[in-house]
Amino acid sequence: MEINSSSSVLPSGREVLVVEDEIRIRDMLSRALKEMGYHATLAPSAEAAARLMAQREFDILILDLNLPAMGGMEFFEIVRKRHRDIQVIILTGFGDLEAAKKAIHLDVVEFLTKPCALGNLEIALERARKRRRGQIVNESAAASEPLLQFESPDGTKPVTHSAGVATAEGATQLSLEELEQQHILRALEKHNGKRAAVAAELGISIRKLFYRLGEYQKKGLIP
């Protein structure tokens, strides 16, 4: 059964489809999204969500990975093929590095783990809304480039960090942006700053590399 919150006239980019099999979490997200100024449509399964998406358009998809019948990641792959413009936020208690890597390749906005602070969800939603409306400068150009494979040359795993992606052991690892950042900076150090060699190893274009390095310079991560 699909559950829909009351609709109202909202600014663009605020139609959210929540795919979550736990009714308690669905209800919590419905209330939270309404308070944040979004209109939530709720679905208990990927199959129910697919039917809703065939009937109408959504701006943002909040997706659990551990769903009955069709899994969340399988559904994400289908969604990305059929609904290229929808912005996807994964919110799950079942997540690991492999799932995060796959989500990155499918152009996920954020990979959040339960329990998730509502402040973090609101930040992810705002980013998704801006991406949907094309308000992030160069976002579409950067997204069109091939993403990194995220395979460390030395086989080591990313260091732990307080943001984002949960491992199978329950530890917390780098957020999606930081995961990409870590691999780029490792390759940059390995090749003594030679951009062409870095881009070749990572399998990305020089344009994408320079775009990312420009972001890192603004953050003070590189000179």
Describe the protein in words.
With 223 residues, the chain is of the alpha/beta class. The chain is 44% helix and 13% strand. The chain folds into two domains: 3-136, Rossmann fold (3-Layer(aba) Sandwich); 175-218, Homeodomain-like (Arc Repressor Mutant, subunit A, Orthogonal Bundle), CATH 1.10.10. The chain is built from nine helices and eight strands. The strands form two sheets. A six-stranded mixed β-sheet has the order 1-3-2-4-5-6. The protein has a two-stranded antiparallel sheet with strand order 7-8. α7 (176-190) crosses α8. The radius of gyration is 18 Å and the shape is elongated. The model is unreliable at 1-11, 135-140 and 142-173 (pLDDT under 50).
Number of continuous helical runs: 9
Low-confidence stretches: 1-11, 135-140, 142-173
Mean pLDDT across the residues is 77
Class from secondary-structure proportions: alpha/beta
Within CATH, the superfamily of the largest domain carries the name Response regulator
Q: How does the major sheet shape up?
A: 6 strands, mixed
Shape: elongated
The CATH architecture of the largest domain: 3-Layer(aba) Sandwich
Total domain count: 2
Strand content: 5-15%
Quaternary structure of the protein: single chain
Number of strands: 8
Features:
single chain, 223 residues, alpha/beta, Rossmann fold, Arc Repressor Mutant, subunit A, 6-stranded mixed sheet, two-stranded antiparallel sheet, 8 strands, 44% helix, 13% strand, disordered N terminus
